[in-house]
Design brief:
By secondary structure, the protein is mainly alpha-helical. It has a domain at 1-67. 39% of the residues lie in helices and 8% in strands. It has five helices and two strands, in the order αααβααβ. It has a two-stranded parallel ribbon with strand order 1-2. The longest helix is centred in the middle third of the chain and has 19 residues, at 87-105.
């Protein structure tokens, strides 16, 4: 028996007004993130995974669940258009999203030896080292990879 998808939106829901019925999922995921756990959202296409990630990025939701910027910074990145790109280009794009996300919440100063956020390619060791430098020890960078 095939179930009907309850979501009528054709794109991920960005407006919290239209996001409802997922309080239990948001609560569970936020608790796992706050405790430093990794989380995987798995489900059929267009079931609301991207909308759920978008909801977690809302400042009011983060405040409600204790995901405060001085402890962790949530960074959303959609990989939808990146499947045919070399890994170095993907790492550079994620790095740019991280720098933008940290700049938006305005927590702490950036270390001076980080890669330029406009770099076009980034190898994995440099990407990994940069993530550690920008996040540790003041904050954890939480990547919400869609």
């Amino acid at each position: 028996m095939k179930r009907e998808n309850p979501f009528y939106h054709r794109v991920p829901i960005q407006d919290s007004t239209y996001f409802f019925g997922r309080a239990q999922e948001v609560d569970r995921i936020a608790a796992l993130i706050a405790n430093g756990q990794s989380v995987s959202l798995i489900g059929p296409r267009r079931i609301g995974k991207s909308s759920l990630l978008s909801q977690l990025c809302q400042p009011l939701v983060q405040a409600e669940y204790g995901l405060v910027a001085d402890a962790q910074t949530l960074v959303y990145f959609s990989g939808e258009a990146w499947q045919d790109q070399p890994t170095g280009v993907l790492y550079a794009a994620i790095w740019t999203a991280v720098v933008d996300g940290v700049a938006v919440v305005g927590t702490g100063a950036f270390p001076t030896d980080l890669p330029d956020p406009m770099v076009e390619t980034l190898d994995f060791p440099t990407f990994q080292r940069a993530l550690r430098q920008i996040g540790y020890p003041e904050r954890r960078i939480v990547l919400l990879l869609d």
